[in-house]
Amino acid sequence: MITSIGEIPTAAAQVYGGKTVLVCEDRSLSFSELDALSNKLASALIGLGVQVGDRVTLYSPNCWEWVVSYYGILKTGAVVNPINVMLTPSEVEFIANDCGASVVIASYDKAMSIQNVKERSEVRELIAFGDEPLPDGMLSFNSVLDAANDNFEVPDIDPLSLSTIGYTSGTTGHPKGACLSHQSILLNVAMTALMHQRSDRDTVVTALPCPHVYGNVVMSGAVQSGMTLVLHPSFDEKTILQSIQKHRATLFEGVPTMFMFLLNYPDLDAYDLSSLRCCTVGGQTMPVPKMQEVEAHFGCPLIELWGMTELGGLGTTFASNGPVKHGSIGVALPYAEARIASTEDATVTLPVGEIGELMIKGGVVMQGYYGNEQATRDTIEPDGWLHTGDVASMDEDGCIFIVDRKKDMILTAGYNVYPAEIERVVAGHRDVALVAVGSVPDEEKGELAKAYIVPKTGAQPDADDIINYCREHLAAYKVPRSVQFVDDLPKTSTGKVMRRELHSLDN
After folding, report:
1. pLDDT tens digits for range 125-177
2. Are β-strands 400-405 and 386-394 bridged in parallel, bridged antiparallel, or unpaired?
3. With the CA atoms of 220, 224, 225 and 230 taken in that order, what torsion angle do they form, in degrees rounded to the nearest 10?
4. CB-based burial label for 342 (10 Å; 0-12, 13-18, 19+)
5. Do residues 127 and 106 lie in contact, with contact meaning Cβ atoms separated by under 8 Å?
6. In terms of C-beta density within 10 A (0-12 exposed, 13-18 middle, 19 or more buried), how is residue 226 classed?
7. How far apart, in Å, do the first and last CA atoms of the chain sit?
8. Which residues are CB-contacts of 144 (< 8 A; sequence separation ≥ 6)?
9. pLDDT in tens, 342-398
10. Model pLDDT, residue 169
11. What is the mean pLDDT of residues 3-22?
12. Total Cβ atoms within 10 A of residue 426
């Protein structure tokens, strides 16, 4: 039985051997090659003085080296710290110092951007991907691998020991490091695979960033389940559609904006997507009309899921072979529990249909925030229930419906207005490709909702028409008072819209 994450590629190689596990732009790897290369990196890290429990930061876009590094780090018994590729050098420096990283492994451009990090932190070694010449004091990833031995035995690792420190986005200040055990991530990967019936018959195409928990579960689920993972460094409509067609993918996994862009792509129907058996969407709520459009064009079910850094992956989803309720993020994963708690008293569970805070409990929940006991106490109740910060309701079947993030709520004349609810309505308009809702100050009512809209290709929507459409479907206090048409929306590395940055678009 696998008890630590580093054992995944070794166990998979014993079963699947020469089968292709990873397809990237410049290289493909078999299961055996992934195991051997991650063994080499583990050996090299041990040679550089990395010990059990040491922190190793991983800072790179999706590539084969990232996947090898992830498993190589964990094979040593060290703790992996995968960070968002969009972080600035100062943010990387903060995280490296906060978690006490001893080694940073990065793509060439990212390594060059933080080459002075060793002078201002506990980082001893900086290892860079690629073949470009490196400055003194920086190690070449390829040279490190070439000099190492692929005969490596993973040590016995306590499944409850720390495996990962994943940092939150830091919307309320400095990011916090969520501490995740080997067991919590293994459980998440296994239960996600179970719910979605992932197997060695599957080929998954994705551009989700591996450092993000959604992308990480997709990656590890592929390796553990004997799948082939076609991994793209970034999202591009044409490239993704070509990839699904070329590799006869059975799964495509993404965030709502990816699916919105694909629906808006003029040549979508020119591609053969008949190999798809299922698509999954997470990261943000997706309007039901758009989900129905995806299913009509892609010819397969679209299953919503929900998760967060503090869970190391998913918390809820639907089974791929069961009934799905569009607009719902599903039910709690096996071995996890979910409930809707009063926002005034977390010990009070609300009745079916009432709106409160979604809370999660079970083996997937983090151990706490690294070095931040107060934040841990604020987030995890003494009995183990995790505050998610999401406002939601639950129906009689245990299906959960996200209303919005507590922090994104707009207060209009004393009424609670949730941007996601407005976005779901606006997205149903025939001329809308993408929409995000933010707030603007108002002297009389405090805040008012404003819709930022990316029109569909060839469409010329009218702001008054959009507002009138909203009046047909929303209570008067929820209707956005203004509309602005934009070319694009500010997004994270996963493609998730950043509502807090919408004001930068104001004209």
Report:
1. 999 999 899 999 999 999 999 999 999 999 999 999 999 999 986 544 578 99
2. antiparallel
3. 40
4. middle
5. yes
6. middle
7. 58
8. 41, 44, 127
9. 988 999 999 999 999 999 999 999 999 999 999 999 999 999 999 998 999 999 999
10. 62
11. 97
12. 24
List, edge to edge, every strand of the sheet that includes 400-405: 336-341, 356-362, 386-394, 400-405
Of the candidates 91, 64, 333, 98, the one whose C-alpha atom is nearest the C-alpha of residue 196 is 333
**DSSP element (H, E) containing 205:** strand 203-206
Instruction: Report the alpha-carbon distance of residue 211 to residue 214 in Å, rounded.
Output: 8
* Helix, strand or coil, per DSSP, at residue 429: coil
Answer whether residue 20 shows pLDDT above 70: yes
The alpha-carbon radius of gyration of the chain (Å, integer) is: 23
Question: Could you identify the residue written with the tokens 């409850």?
Answer: 160
The two most distant CA atoms of the chain are separated, in Å, by 70
Q: What is the pLDDT of residue 172?
A: 46
Nearest C-alpha neighbor of 459 from the set 484, 433, 436: 433
pTM metric for this prediction: 0.85
DSSP 476: G
Task: From 90, 77, 261, select the one nearest 157 (Cα to Cα).
Answer: 77
Q: Strand 446-455 to strand 432-442: parallel, antiparallel, or no bridges (unpaired)?
A: antiparallel
- Give the whole-angstrom CA distance, residue 381 versus residue 367: 12
Burial grade of 374 (CB within 10 A; 0-12, 13-18, 19 or more): exposed
Q: What are phi and psi of 502, to 5 degrees?
A: -65, -30
226: tokens are: 């004997």
Instruction: Tell me which residue of 106, 85, 41, 73 sits closest to 207, measured CA to CA.
Output: 85
Taking the C-alpha atoms of residue 147 and residue 140, their distance in angstroms, rounded to an integer, is 11
Cα separation, 206 vs 230, whole angstroms: 6
Sign of the alpha-carbon torsion through 68, 73, 79, 81 = negative
**Strand blocks (E) in 282-413:** 302-308, 313-317, 331-332, 336-341, 356-362, 368-369, 386-394, 400-405, 410-412
What does the alpha-carbon distance between residue 107 and residue 312 come to, in Å, rounded to a whole number?
23
Inform me whether the pLDDT recorded for 419 exceeds 90: no
- One-letter amino acid of 29: L
**Closest Cα partner for 105 from 157, 67, 136?**
67
Question: What distance in Å separates the CA atoms of residue 261 and residue 239, rounded to the nearest whole number?
Answer: 12
- Residue of 366, 37, 41 lying closest to 188 (CA atoms): 366
CA distance 471 to 478: 9
Which uninterrupted H or E stretch holds 82? strand 79-82
